[in-house]
Amino acid sequence: MIQVSNLTKDYGARRAVDGLNFEARQGEITGFLGPNGAGKTTTMRILTGYMPPTDGTATVAGFDIVKESLEVRKRVGYLPETVPLYTEMTVFSYLKFMADLRHLPDVDNVVSETLDMVGLLDRADGFIGNLSKGMRQRVGLAQALLHRPEVLILDEPTIGLDPAQIIEVRNLIREIGRERTVLLSTHILSEAQQICDRILIINKGKIVAEDTPENLQASLAGAQRVQIILRGQADKAVEEISGLAGVQNVILQGEDRLEFQYDIQNDIRPNVVRAVIKAKLDMLEMRTASLSLEDIFLQLTKDDSAESEE
Ligand SMILES: Nc1ncnc2c1ncn2[C@@H]1O[C@H](COP(=O)(O)OP(=O)(O)OP(=O)(O)O)[C@@H](O)[C@H]1O
Ligand SMILES: [Mg+2]
């Protein structure tokens, strides 16, 4: 279990994490989905006790991340964004070294069992430097699993892997996540959909949506997206159309067209036609398209402040 309350992190003047509140429950895989720079890694580093928050609190496996960080580290397995592996060590000796750092008993057995869990037993004596990226990622996972932590925090576990390896690593995560609390980050929507029990969409340090993949999908299935093409000057229709009950998210798309959404229960297309006429414009075309989860993700995470990453 992870409980996060008003978690905030500033890097100098930049607020990377902005008052996060969420829970990740045991037996569930919680996905942290967000674009580059959203604050995923920062949050994960704070939760693993590598860095203190500027404000707010969190508990991991029941322990406070600041006041009881040693207890937290005993119970958390962390796969960092870039796995720092020693290329000149063998898989076995590296994991043994990591297990010794954690003062685990019966190290040889622990390492063998862990290698078995991640499907790397036959590579135990190989040098890490000679492993493929996917296999290194497994070594990283093995390292995170050595002490059989109740909480796993995995930062982009499938990044850089080929499609076959992605599937393998996802299956592995689902398997090892069955009784644990897993928080994983990704910026790939389909990955979050496939692997996670719950999805938290994070953008600019804030959670902008939170639900099961099914509910996110269902709430979208209830919405219809429409594009209308006018004879020029579409901006003149924005006000009328935005004013219609049931219309949301009106977006001007170039001179002659705009897009918006409406609730499928309430077909407001006739009102749209009237609104266009009222704005003294000609409508050339009206197209409808169902919203995909992709659309919602883009909407929720679009950069509307015009401030960009340096
Ligand atoms: N050590 C640091 N010093 C200063 N700013 C930082 C530091 N680490 C991250 N940031 C800034 O904090 C914000 C959040 O970064 P973070 O790495 O948490 O995002 P992320 O969601 O993990 O992104 P990505 O998908 O690219 O990994 C960004 O604006 C980033 O530039
Ligand atoms: Mg990151």
Describe this structure in words.
This protein has two domains: 2-218, Rossmann fold (3-Layer(aba) Sandwich); 223-290, 2-Layer Sandwich (Alpha-Beta Plaits). The chain is of the alpha/beta class and 310 residues long. The two termini are 35 Å apart. A six-stranded mixed sheet has the order 6-7-8-3-9-10, with helices on both faces. Strands 2-1-4-5 form a four-stranded antiparallel sheet, covered by helices on one side. It contains eleven helices and 14 strands. The chain is elongated, with a radius of gyration of 24 Å. The chain binds adenosine-5'-triphosphate (ATP) and magnesium ion. Adenosine-5'-triphosphate is lined by residues 11, 14, 16, 34, 36-42, 81, 187.
How many H/I helical runs? 11
With strands numbered from the N-terminus, the spatial order across the biggest sheet is 6-7-8-3-9-10
Count of structural domains: 2
Task: Name the helicity range.
Answer: 25-40%
C-alpha termini separation: 35 Å
Low-confidence stretches: 306-310
Which second-level CATH architecture of the largest domain applies?
3-Layer(aba) Sandwich
Q: Count the beta strands.
A: 14
**Biggest sheet, in brief?**
6 strands, mixed
Q: Averaged pLDDT, please?
A: 89
From the structure provided, what is the oligomeric state, counting identical versus distinct chains?
single chain
Bound molecules: adenosine-5'-triphosphate, magnesium ion
CATH class of the largest domain: Alpha Beta
User: CATH superfamily name of the largest domain?
Assistant: P-loop containing nucleotide triphosphate hydrolases
From the alpha carbons, calculate the radius of gyration and give it in angstroms: 24 Å
Strand-residue fraction? 25-35%
The rough form would be described as elongated
Report the order of strands and helices: EEEHEEHEHHHEHEHEEHEHEEHEH
